[in-house]
């Protein structure tokens, strides 16, 4: 999705924040104050006079009335709270804050003071302080639904969505329509922040049902439906609003929904271009449209948006960088190089040099690519991503010694980086040092929070070897397989390595476990011939010839280019007395064997591409 969770959650909150924070504090004091009422007729009259002044729009008169009395009666909580509220209405927030703090010095559990102070902090943007005040108030008066909603709002603004969800739990929607809309909108924002996109869309639909003509609600609901990938509904909402209002944000939502539905979006794009905007507004719109198009892989269409954005503000290096990136992704390499060099003239950066390296590599100029990657390292020597880019460039061109030098420097700087260790392991693999590669990949797996990538390559490397695996390798891969019993790929690695370990020694005590793991792999990875090929080997080892034949036939049917599979089939047919079929399989074996070198080259390229992808798609992940 083009719209991030945070952005959608924020959009769902629009129109909600001010209404909650700006509730009339005088009325809330009447409803929710836990402080004692005035204990004298004089104080009661003064409080009544102050409230009358407030109702007549004269907060300064109320301030004078209450201040005069509090000079001689400083500990009167109700009047001090009323004074704080008068200061709020008069727009004198620092003075109001001071009064509430005085109340809390004497009465730390005064809910009205806590809530009112929380409101002030909220309006001043001091969200942590607001959350602390409102959280304390909620613990003291947890049955107050408006207070819990207000606390949940602040929690949502702090992106503490799980806590906000708890604050809203078991709350009944308010009766008043406006409050009910705000309630559903807040729940939608929290759900979106938690990644529960369908729930967020459902809550917004409830809000929209109460005010179906409200443009803001239509917009927010369309955004929520986009996030839940209900493209048709999002397009219907955004399209009707756009046709009625020509609001460019509605048009952008419609565009994204049309792309999601794989419909022609160019008419919508043209209509957005045709509208007249101030330069700053057009620049923001062009950036927004480019973001949507790039997110959905429409790089060629995004280029026009970014070219126009650069025309509107040619001194914005970030715009030129994005243009170069879009041109690179669209395969327009000469244009990308021109834009990137123009960006460099404005301001050079490690990101830009890294992109230039990618462009030059794609153009076939690997020497220029190396220079750019080296420049990126020089500009950001403390960022491992750029050293990995340089190492990958050397790996790609089989310059393994140079790659080792770069990665040794990286390892000294980041000894606990699993990505550096992964790259080190892959260099050794490509260079033919399989045992060293396996040792390093085990370390990479130990360092990674999610070791699947490193262990996956460890498994692939080990399955290609003829020698028995080391106990450490078997323990690592089988341990992961035991923890992820439904992962067929790792059941295959474990079962296959256990088989190779036991084959040399003739130990068949683990045969049932080996067959079980490989059978799980075959049932899980239904398009992968490898588990069937391994099962064919295992059954032949066990002298279970019908099963060996069935699995080996599945192996060569799914992978006709498997030289090993055809050789095994020839042996099985020979054992079963089917000489003609055995001769046919030997012919297939010889033809497949001649293709092995080419196949190995393709495998190596796949490994290099994967390493490049890891380096680019998981920046900073250690």
Protein topology:
Elements: H1 5-13, H2 17-21, H3 25-32, H4 41-55, H5 59-72, H6 77-89, H7 93-106, H8 111-123, H9 127-140, H10 145-157, H11 161-168, H12 177-193, H13 197-210, H14 215-227, H15 231-245, H16 248-260, H17 266-274, H18 279-295, H19 299-312, H20 317-329, H21 333-346, H22 350-362, H23 366-379, H24 384-396, H25 400-413, H26 418-430, H27 434-447, H28 452-463, H29 471-483, H30 488-505, H31 511-524, H32 530-541, H33 545-558, H34 563-575, H35 579-594, H36 596-617
Helix pairs in contact: 1-12, 1-14, 4-5, 4-6, 5-6, 6-7, 7-8, 8-9, 9-10, 10-11, 10-12, 11-12, 12-13, 13-14, 14-15, 14-16, 15-16, 16-17, 16-18, 18-19, 19-20, 20-21, 20-22, 21-22, 22-23, 23-24, 24-25, 24-26, 24-36, 25-26, 26-27, 26-36, 27-28, 28-29, 28-30, 29-30, 30-31, 30-32, 31-32, 32-33, ...
